[in-house]
Amino acid sequence: MTDPYLDDAQERPVNLRHLRRLWPFVRPYRRAFMACLLMLVLSLGLDLLGPKLMRLAIDGPMRPSSLLVGERLWQLGWLGAGMLLVTAGGTTLGYLYGTLSAWNGQRVIRDVRAALFAHLLAVSPSFHDRNPAGKLTTRVTADVENLNELIATGVLQSVFDLLKIAGVLTALFWINAPLALFTLASTPIVVVISLLFRRNAQRAYRAVRGKLALQNAYTAEAIGGMRAMRAFGREAAVLARYGELNRDTTNAWLATVLHFSVFFSLVDLALRVTTIGMLWFGGKAVLADELSVGQFVQFWFYFAMLSAPIKELGEKYNVLQAAFASTERILQILAEPLFPPPAARPGHRTSARGAAAIAFADVTFGYDPQRPVLRQVSFDVAAGQTVAVVGPTGAGKTTLLSLVSRLRDVDAGAVRLDGVDVRDWDLQALRARVAVVSQDLFLFTGTVLDNVRLFDRHIQEDRVWHWLEVVGAAEFVRALPGGLQAPVQERGGTFSQGERQLLSFARALVTEPDVLVLDEATASIDSRSEARLQTALRAALRGRTALVVAHRLSTVRSADRILVLEHGSIVEAGDHAQLLAQNGHYARMLRSLQEQPT
Ligand SMILES: Nc1ncnc2c1ncn2[C@@H]1O[C@H](COP(=O)(O)OP(=O)(O)OP(=O)(O)O)[C@@H](O)[C@H]1O
Ligand SMILES: [Mg+2]
After folding, report:
1. Strand 374-381 relative to strand 358-365: parallel, antiparallel, unpaired?
2. CA–CA separation, 503 vs 474, rounded Å?
């Protein structure tokens, strides 16, 4: 595990109940999983058949008898052919099992990954506020990968190991009960060794994860703080600290290896000592004619088959435990409620197009319901009107906008679009009518075209050009190497603030929305760009209802009505001239704006 945010204490013993919750993912492939299990059982049968054939050979043609040598060779040949078939069958099964189980595992993993990613896109924004993106990325990648261990081989292989131990023990008793009882006498020793090993190995593994998490956290921080560190010439100190952490990680790993080699050697020792006893007791039984030589050899082979599954079970336990912890974390995310919650009944849809009316009625909202950010906000925007919202930073302007397209839900009151509560709208229909231009102007990795039509291939290029033309972005896009196909990297960092804003306008407009919800970016831009943006905005607002958070004087002036928001309440409302005449908050704000050197 390489996750610095990981809480190691979460690790619990393997809990089979979780497997049940994974069932929906496994269910579609249950036949393939059954086939895998069947193959394992078959291969166990073949494994047991080999020594049986050996015994038949030893007790049959190889034993001195009155039969002709030719005849005995013939029999031996048949047995040899049988062995060949068993081997060929075993190899084929092994190949098929390996392929099918990997295939199964990967398909389940693919589904889990898809479900997890889809879920992360659909949960409440507040969930993302609480969980760093890096941590969630680890969930979708590393934890899902761990789950693969569980699905692809872990569970089936462990079932097989148990089955093999049971099968071999049964076979041993079948051949000779007293001798089998004697070998069982060594079992308690092996069990005690396994239990001791499990506890120690678990502790050692946890230490590895802890050290690794520390080292990773330090690495991330050192890289992030690289500039500061270099500017102060602290490379040597950082390197030394890294060296220490690195050594700790290595030592922790070596400790687990130590545990494993001790465990393996002890199991081997116990089994070997038992075989010495077997030689004595078995040999005596052969001399007393209670056991044939062939049976003795068969017994010996079977006993040797016990070592592998015992070791594997010991080894698998840790892998399984890590996988179970990952499963738990994945299931935890999948249990996170969706936002908005899936509607109980079909939402409001309408074929009506054209500007829509917006109404806020006594809206109260807080990210933390105890501390409201908006308090009883009420206002109306008539269809086709443009209303500007102004106010100091942190007043709640962005928050207010997020309620219109239902990125968040009100705590009290209601937001209505065309008289219908947004919570009663079909979400797709609502968002098709309302386009949002957000403050942080996010551009995705891809091309300019991708960014304007947001990866929606139904939107034709000429429509993209049309809107780029309207907002006045066509000129600079044409000048880009590749035009619409020009690459966008680093969240659009290679574009200027104004260009990004124009692209965001175009992005909102290509969907031909009826309502535009616009959060102006705060950064000040030069006067030429300002004029260009103003033209773009006028074009964008034509024939639409708009709720605009305005940071620029020109935008505010041209609005039909202005709302002044302070500490989450509307303190003034009216048009530019009215508010100026009132000589209150708005007039004060305006004076400070005009003092800015734009
Ligand atoms: N995701 C969030 N979780 C918790 N609190 C938030 C979150 N987003 C904003 N806030 C808080 O809500 C308040 C209003 O924030 P908002 O972003 O609406 O301000 P704003 O008026 O848009 O400011 P600006 O002019 O700087 O954009 C602030 O006190 C802010 O700290
Ligand atoms: Mg804001």
Report:
1. antiparallel
2. 10
Select the more confidently predicted residue: 392 or 343. 392
- Which ligand gives the minimal distance to the CA of 372? 1
Mutate to test the pocket of ligand 1, among 128, 129, 363, 373 (most ligand atoms within 8 A of CB): 373
Cβ neighbors of 229 (< 8 A, separation 6 or more) are: 222, 235, 238
β-pair type (446-447, 569-574): unpaired
- Give the Cα separation of 315 and 309 in Å (integer): 10
pLDDT tens-digit series, residues 149-205: 888 777 888 888 888 999 999 998 998 888 888 888 777 777 788 788 878 877 887
1 residue type, one letter: M
Q: Closest ligand to 396 CA?
A: 1
**Separation of alpha carbons 91 and 57, rounded Å:** 22
Binding site membership of 129 for ligand 1 (Cβ less than 6 Å): yes
Ordered by start, the domain boundaries in the chain are 8-334, 358-594
- 233: region left, alpha or beta (phi > 0 left; psi from -120 to 50 alpha): left
89, burial (CB in 10 Å: exposed 0-12, middle 13-18, buried 19+) = middle
Q: Are 568 and 374 in contact, with CB atoms under 8 Å apart?
A: yes
Residue type, 530: E
CB 370 near ligand 1, within 6 Å = no
Cβ proximity of 337 and 124 under 8 Å? yes
- Candidates 193, 194, 244, 196; CA nearest to 218 is 244
Please report the pLDDT score of residue 7 as a whole number.
Answer: 43
- What is the pTM (predicted TM-score) of this model? 0.77
**Which amino acid would we find at residue 226?**
M
Q: Which residue has the tokens 């435990």?
A: 321
15: confidence class by pLDDT, cuts 50, 70, 90:
low
Of ligand 1's atoms, which has the minimum distance to the CA of residue 395? 21
What is the topology classification, in CATH, of domain 358-594?
Rossmann fold (3.40.50)
pLDDT value for 1: 36
Whether 390 contacts 401, CB under 8 Å = no
Angle between helices 307-334 and 69-122 (to 10 degrees): 20
Dihedrals phi, psi of 528, to nearest 5 degrees: -65, -45
Residue located nearest, by CA, to atom 2 of ligand 1: 367
Q: Which of 399, 437, 552 to mutate to test ligand 1, by most ligand atoms within 8 A of the CB atom?
A: 399
For the cut 60, the answer to whether the pLDDT of residue 134 exceeds it is yes
| CATH 3.40.605.10 assigned to 8-334 | no
Pocket test of ligand 1: the residue of 397, 436, 552 to mutate, having most ligand atoms within 8 Å of its CB, is: 397
d(C-alpha 43, C-alpha 35), whole Å = 12
Report residue 260 CA to chain centroid gap: 31
Q: What is the pLDDT of residues 541-557, one digit of tens each?
A: 888 999 999 888 888 88
> Could you tell me which of 62, 57, 6 has the C-alpha nearest to residue 213?
6
What pLDDT is attached to residue 359? 96
